[in-house]
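Why run this: before we spend reagent on co-expression, it is cheaper to look at a predicted model of the complex and decide which construct boundaries make sense. The entries below are exactly what would go into the expression plan.
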Amino acid sequence: MSISAPEIRSRKRRNGASPIVMVTAYDEPGARYADAGGVDMLLVGDSVANVVLGHTDTLHVSVEEMCHHVRAVSAAKPNAHIVADMPWMSYHISDRESVRNAAALIRAGAHSVKLEGGSVRRDVVRAVLDAEIPVMGHIGLTPQSVLAFGGFKVQGKTLDAAKLLMEDALVLQEAGVFSMVIEAVPPIVGTQITQALDVPTIGIGAGPDTDGQVLVFHDLLGLTNRKPAKFVRQYADIGKAITDAVSQYASDVRNGSFPSESEVYANPDELLN
Ligand code: KIV
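The model came back. Tokens follow.
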């Protein structure tokens, strides 16, 4: 049995819990390796749009495409909790449609869904919860708001903006989310929201005091060609390892050293006569 939403809900650091570790995953090998690394949560993020599919933002993935990636992640049968992003326009039209879309992600293998936005999402969060689907919130720099924000910009930088974010967090908690991502805010905002909430916060560029941290798999492993955000720590250079390995393979094919005798099947005697 994978880690459940109630188990995550209970992971408040101030009550002695260890920090929640979340990483994105978009396919079976990624989920398998991340799970073996001991993460608590795998986020099938709509960041698949820019990280894997080559778009410039997250506005270009559908529920069907997200389900395709959720199925692949779920095939790894991870111990980690799988949370799936509800993509843009999948929870903006009506509560009925939002519940149907959340259910599709659950049937594809997710254990909960995440949606972006603050107070304005109160009713849709309640509607999805009414269908017994756990919901994670996401406030601060919500990438689906890139056009409205005019770019990927740090949020909560003024007193008024910080107060609005605090209000958003409290409304989402009251609506029933089991945890909340806080993205790209000054650390004091991450700290104060974390202190004000009973549900755990998971930060990405929200400072050291949130109840957990999340990073994008490809950023952590050095698999992107985009300039990393300030909050990214790169733990490996897998991109370079891939290029080196493929270039060695190309060279071995070209110089005739691949395949070697040990890499071919034995010729049957009958064919040799
Ligand atoms: O889709 C994603 O990768 C996310 C993280 C940035 C939290 O939502």
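The chain has one domain: 5-237. Residues 159-175 form the longest helix (17 residues). Bring this page to Monday's planning discussion.
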